[in-house]
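Narrative summary of target 7.
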Amino acid sequence: MKENRTVINVFKLDRMRYSPFDESFSGEHEYLKKNGINIISDVRKADIFICSSLKRRKFLSVLRNYKPILVWTNEPRSSTNLKNIFFPLKILFLNIYSGKVFVNNVTYQKKRFLHRPLLKYIEAKDLNVDFDRRTVALMSFYKGLKGNELKIKDTDVDLINLRNKIALYGHPNGSIDVYGQGWPEGISRENSRHGNWPETKRNILSHYNFNLAFENTVFPYYVTEKIWDAIENYCLPIYFGGKDSTIYEDFPKESFLDYSLYESPEVLFREIQKMSRKEYIYRLNKCIDTYNKFVLMDNVFWENLDCKRLDYLIQACKSLS
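Modeled conformation, tokenized:
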């Protein structure tokens, strides 16, 4: 994209953490600045406002200065709007449902793969003698089995409720160990979010061979760190593919365990118990194949990916100013 000399002043209505508007993401922040997107602290000079949720509109009554708004978020529930708004305010939405926030299956994984060593393929000798078939789930309970429905185009895309049901089914018979917040008493082994979470997660995953790694939502290209963390730590992911996922654009069939192909948690855990070492090694090495494919991608691949999603954002700012 050519450098744009027209300056658009953007005022953040919230912190916009983990977004291109977060100053700690220096490369993305500089790219926006280079292309004329100037993040300011003086609301009076703002051309547009930006926020991660329309709930932030409460700030507008305080500001008394109605400006166009860009809602940008990569969180499934922060914004579910499918259409932009043009009256009484002009509001554009860039969320996971717009197709302009997650643009492929590794949209936010550059730091994971760039300049990392290839994963080693596993062999039969790498498995413990007893080959522990317990699954680990690292996830919060949120609202439990209530209130998680999330409908997009009349389809419930939520996966939180489903993964909770799987964990609650498997826990009593020892099929699954749960780590996370908000679970009924006696379910979670610990609140694993405290302290150095990435290191804690690696340590937990290192003791298991299977990981329930559902996303919060099933939607094209909405692929977060979950499946990659599992593979990186030599756990076979239990993931949810299905017709609304794009995961098979990169993963071959019969790699991860796709829960959308199982009738119930009972069938899933029964198949895990029956799985041979040979099948496990075959599936996990297929996952490692996919992981290593991205390790081998050069700088140009990741730079083009960054530019593609940032250019969507820049175009949205320009259309509002």
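The first strand starts at residue 8 and ends at 12.
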